UniProtKB/TrEMBL annotation:
Family: Belongs to the shikimate kinase family.
Subcellular location: Cytoplasm
Name of the gene this protein is made from: aroK
Signal peptide: none
Species this protein is from: Candidatus Merdimorpha stercoravium
Enzyme class: transferase
Binding site for ATP: 10-15, 118
Swiss-Prot/TrEMBL keywords: Amino-acid biosynthesis, Aromatic amino acid biosynthesis, ATP-binding, Cytoplasm, Kinase, Magnesium, Metal-binding, Nucleotide-binding, Transferase
Protein name: Shikimate kinase
Function: Catalyzes the specific phosphorylation of the 3-hydroxyl group of shikimic acid using ATP as a cosubstrate.
Amino acid sequence: MKIVLLGYMGSGKTAMGRMLARQANLAFVDLDHYIEQIEELSIPEIFHRYGEGGFRQIESFHLRQVMEHQDHFVLSLGGGTPCFNDNMDYLHGACTSIYLSASPIALAERLACSTTKRPLLKGKTGNELLEYVRQSLSQREPFYKQADYELSVETLSVEESGVALVELLKKNHIL
């Protein structure tokens, strides 16, 4: 069983992935953390050293490594992972994918306190952050919408989102 969580930064992929993995007794892999461990560089360092294009190549390589060499896991992707290098096409049929969706306003509110840790958000605050989220989400959402399932996390806490995710997977006979 391979369950992949995707969505924009701040949608709760990592927190919900950990929770789901614990409840389903599966391994948990956060793709960004996996990349940092293997590359021995932080994501901001990889962006600085290789640029976004270089990072996306590294990210796609490691996505395929995880998918091909591990079984029975929950994987949380980086926000941009589905949008580059045919990664969504690759995931189709290889896993169960779930898009954790929320509005630009909700995402910007969640991200407001973590812009320094996220290379694409560095230095953005207030309306500038909201406009960036609005614009980039509109570009990414067509890829996200290709997921097998969509779960709105707009108004849910992490715990409520986790319960809703488990219910979705049970209802569809995945868990």
